[in-house]
Amino acid sequence: MLFNSFSFLLFYLPAVLAGYFLLGRLGARWSAAWLALASLLFYGCWDWRYLPLLLASIGVNFGAARAIAGAAGAGRKRRLAAAVAANLLLLAYYKYANFFVDTARALGADWPAWSIVLPIGISFFTFTQIAFLVDCYHGQVREFRPVHYVLFVSYFPHLIAGPVLHHKEMMPQFADPRAARPQAGNFAVGLSIFVLGLAKKILIADNLSPLVGPVFAAGAEPPLLEAWIGALAYTFQLYFDFSGYSDMAIGLSRLFGVKLPLNFNSPYRAANIAEFWRRWHMTLSRFLRDYLYIALGGNRGGAARRCRNLMLTMLLGGLWHGAGWTFVVWGGLHGVYLVLHQGWRRLAGARPPGRGGAALTFLAVLLAWVVFRAPDLHTAGNILAALAGANGIGLPHGLAGWAPAFARLGLHPAFDGIRWIDFGAPGVPTLALAAALAFLAPNTQEIFFQYEPSIERIFQRLRWPAFAWHPATAWSLGMAALFVCCLVSMNKVTEFLYFQF
């Protein structure tokens, strides 16, 4: 079941909301239990065979957390190590076993091929529970109510593609009886944010997909213009797909009176790569910082160890996104970027980077996305070479009729008969619109800043007050029209890109 599907919008969501508020009259415990049950049903709709795996993970980790909290001394540490190892082994089996076997076979090992299906959302619910276990070890957990823990792990707005939740932010909200009472303000804000996220996914991200596929096909060798269009299209497709999901998750959760942490904050406007990671997948960045980078030593021990810790953190962060060498290389690239950024800071001091820093950061991120999206490293190398003009300054097949005009200018483009990009489709205009929105328009958090849409309050004012959302007829009509546009465009329901990670 997808957020952008008729079954979710017309059946699941209304039924869950009705049950939540009806049971909320009996108390917050009943509404939380209903929401936990509905979240498990939501997960089971993907593949009921993996529902026992999720339940077993929740049960074992809840028991381990209680055991860790009740232990002392070395026993406490041993229990934490065993529980974390069990989670990592589960994740390694389902997510990385195929990768390790395929790599060994490529190196000549005579091993039989494995075909293990990845349970959706396993990375998110595993990381969420590892953080809970570590906090139990440090004595930071004060609540062990089973229903709230089940809901904390399985809460359906976040379960499939994040954000990565933290218990101290969520469990008090689940216990708050005010959340189980319907409030017009929550519905107005939540539905409006949800519609904006839906529009990002359906009207922008999905329309960019046709520009991406041909360029990133295995073994493709696109000419210069096609390569840049494809790379830019994927850069903005992933941006609006993930931003759309993040908005939809925040909007859906607000309907239940619960705020989620912010996970996306206009990352392509970042002035440097460190700022990019403070704006992109913010809860994952927080997890990697708090539970991996700092655990490795963080900034302690001098510049050399800091660079080592940055590289290890980003390599593991890349591997978290997927079991493949492209993801490892992508993580390594970002590790190198962060190390170079640290070196530049030592040389330049506190001098601001200026606009050139933002342009350079965006270019570095785009080049890394090419590796991230490519099906293999060979194809990634082809596309990166094409971006540098290695395949010639070819033009799309659709512009073949312009060849005489280009020839008079001294240009002789090569047309190989392959129609890479259809310039009559909505993809290229959508790409221009996507770039303008990403770089210039206020983001969702800015538009709704007066109503505190997420847990964090990072905006105090809007650059263009006319774009500040408020309950008004014009905003209602605009959101309704945008929702209708989304509905009529939902002829083909597509998954969110982050579902595969």
TrEMBL record:
The keyword Repressor does not apply. It is found in: Cell membrane. It is a multi-pass membrane protein. GO terms for cellular component: plasma membrane. GO terms for molecular function: acyltransferase activity. Keywords: Acyltransferase, Alginate biosynthesis, Cell membrane, Membrane, Transferase, Transmembrane, Transmembrane helix. The chain crosses the membrane at residues 6-23, 50-68, 80-101, 113-134, 146-165, 185-203, 310-333, 353-372, 384-403, 423-441, 467-490. One of its GO terms (biological process) is alginic acid biosynthetic process. Pathway: Glycan biosynthesis; alginate biosynthesis. Belongs to the membrane-bound acyltransferase family. This is Probable alginate O-acetylase AlgI. It comes from Rugamonas rubra.
